[in-house]
Amino acid sequence: MDESDEGGAADGDGRIALGSASAAPGTLDRGRLPVTELPTGGAERLPVVVANGASDGPTLWLTGGVHGDEATGVAVVQDAVAAFDERLSDLAGAVVAVPVVSPAGLRRNARETYYADEDPNRHFPDADAESARPPKLQERIDARLYAAITGHTPDETTEFAVETVGTNAVADALIDCHTAGVGSEPFAIRDRVLYGDRRSESEAAALSEELGRLIDAFGLPVVREYPAAEYVEENLQRSTAGAVLNEAGIPAFTAELGAHSVVDDALVEAGVAGVFAVAVEMGILAAEDVPESAGTPSDRLDPAPVEFPVRRFRGPTTDVSGLLRHRVAAGDAFAEGDVLADVVSATGERRGTVRADRDGYVLGRAEGLAVYEGDPIGSLAVRDDGDLVVPREDDDE
Predict the structure, then answer these.
(1) Helix H segments across the chain?
(2) Can you name the residues that pair with 310 across neighbouring β-strands?
(3) What is the pLDDT of residues 3-16, one digit of tens each?
(4) Taking burial as the number of CB atoms within 10 A of a residue's CB, which of 150, 157, 224, 246 is the most buried?
(5) Cα(297)–Cα(302) distance, rounded to whole angstroms?
(6) How far apart are CA 130 and CA 148, in angstroms?
(7) C-alpha neighbours within 13 Å on the C-beta side of residue 262
């Protein structure tokens, strides 16, 4: 492989390189980062952009499109990079972007790739993940991108292992841009910071505080992630943001920006405004240098409909099979005991009701009409009084 196609680097003259992109101070460059060979020849290459500021400072990474049908996240990364390109002389630091993390998913407009029928956002490195088999292709691809983001190379023995040199290309923070589902409210996911073998409780608390500062600046309603046991059970510590945060110890969060497959221009504007707000909070850009077109997150979106802290909850579930008729819409607040949905027969006869078992609001309703016993009726944000810093094996709610 040509040396110019290897991983991120920052050399003595302040130049930042990622794959074939190489930007001197005060410039922007676009290129490709090879992550695996293809059976028919050539390589799968991720599109990358490096916006290198005129002066030194922190590095903010932006990623999108790890799920190939999540169009708005890709557009947020693209438009944010274009806006930073107009402010390079004012930047103190760098913005490194991978607008499409999963080209194989994007080509088929699907959450999964054709490499395997698996979620590509559940295979990033986790030192506690045990397997007797060699890593599958998606694990190798994710490990190579993780190495570029964090500077930690899990596997230095393969031809495509990504080596990072210096520190300017390594992330000081990461925003991973997604979409959540049809008709979903926009929100930002704040993962709990786990402590144990990786870091002490005090180190985890400091990391969580830094994360909170950045995610608050982003400006979308904040929804905490699942409790620790469910988080690990769902392999969310192996998502892009989960691994960068809980494996590498770098502040990272996920932005959920509405529905799949179609770019939502209003949410693109909100996402770009949030990215600039994070850049200001990190000291990459002064507030007065933010483009007027970016605005502020509060200009773009309504606040959360509840004032108490909330976490993600997939449910409640139905006890009967049938057709789902919702009583609430995305953005509606509810109280414990409120009816959220009815389950009816195909002829319209009521078979059951689904009630809320705690206070919160609706993030999005389940897609489709038919439900089976045990199916969740939607994605909710429910009251959360749990800790943000928890031991990895914690199973408290």
Answers:
(1) 71-85, 103-107, 137-150, 201-218, 228-233, 240-246, 265-282, 297-300
(2) 383
(3) 444 455 555 688 99
(4) 246
(5) 9
(6) 23
(7) 7
